[in-house]
Amino acid sequence: MRPFIYLVLLMVCGFHPAHSQETILHFSWDASVTQPDVGPAGLTATTISPYATIAAGGVGGTNGLSAGLRAGGNAANAGDKANIHLVVPAHEAFNVDGIDISLDYQRDEAIGTLISRGANFIFGTAAGAQVTYRLQDPEEGNITTFTSPVYEIDLNDNRFHRLRFVYNPYSGEARLSIDGSVVWTPAFTTPGQTLYWDKTADILIGYDIDGAGNNRPVLDNFTFGKVLPASLPVDLIAFSATSTPAGVALEWETAREENHETFLVQRSVPGGHWKTLATLPGEGDRPYGHRYHYLDPEFAGGTTYYRLAQVDVSGVTTYSEVRSIHHDQAYVAAAFTAYPNPAHDYLYLDIDASPGEIRVSDLSGTDVTDAVIVSPRPSTGLQLDLRTLPAGWYVIHGHWGNRKVLKR
């Protein structure tokens, strides 16, 4: 097996965005076929194979899991070999929202499944890397199935290959890789969606895998991990998204900031990509933290996701947990023109409809309309006197839409 460090929390590198991983289950197959090195208390696997055994020839010259062969048997005789078929009993700890699963595999055959848990999750075939998984949208309740192609490993190349699949429910990104190289990602991200499990299903290892009777290790170093949200370089102690009449108000608070360059406020929708809405510069170091506000005045109806991307002074980016908001109706793009933007003393509006009632708020959602003098202009235009407002960002609201403007 590979050297394995028994830590409750592991930082996993190479997956973007970065994430933390809690190891739920790990088999090194260094000393036992059925006893995991890490796992829920009291959990032991079983196997229907009379020949499965620990054998030399695993990764790095250590032991691994072999399907074995009947004593004195012949690999050409089907009765002398058996499938590994290792069963790990169902446990609530396996019902994770996001997964980081990996396995070292040496290919000797063409048919079989490496890891599965019911029909909802399948990882690896005898031919190579492949994954099938199902996701549930906690807001909508929809179930979506994703299946990658099979990425074959050379038959009888006599070496182990590292197969790995990661699904991050916070970013909605998934990666299937062989030996550290990504071979597949789905066509779109699914932020906020979680793995949909058959919670009564066992984990099955080595179904129809008999190693072609070669009597050498075919599996080694199986790890089933739970993906946790990334830790921001700053101490983020609160992050919320709240629906307001002005739009979605995002608020977050830090307890401490070190080498902090900027926050990016990002938005996505189911099946969409992350879009950066705003950049809030930092001040390097804040020993006592800071409180931030941002108002998103325009977004699509249905479910909308928000996250923070924190960039440090060296350019490294990490991400917060995802927050979701659901609206039956959209905040539509404004059907009017506001100019000049940025504005100094006056802002002029050209509106493609009757002006109706107008309201002005700051980015925290606080109504500041009383500080603005509104005057009619020819046709359906308006003039806004902003001279009493302090410099900053404001949102103009009307039945014809919303628009963010900057007062210098």
UniProtKB/TrEMBL annotation:
SUPFAM superfamilies: Concanavalin A-like lectins/glucanases (SSF49899). Keywords: Signal. Residues 1-20 form the signal peptide. It comes from the Bacteria. GO terms for biological process: carbohydrate metabolic process. InterPro entries: ConA-like_dom_sf. The keyword Signal applies. This is Putative secreted protein (Por secretion system target). It comes from Neolewinella xylanilytica.
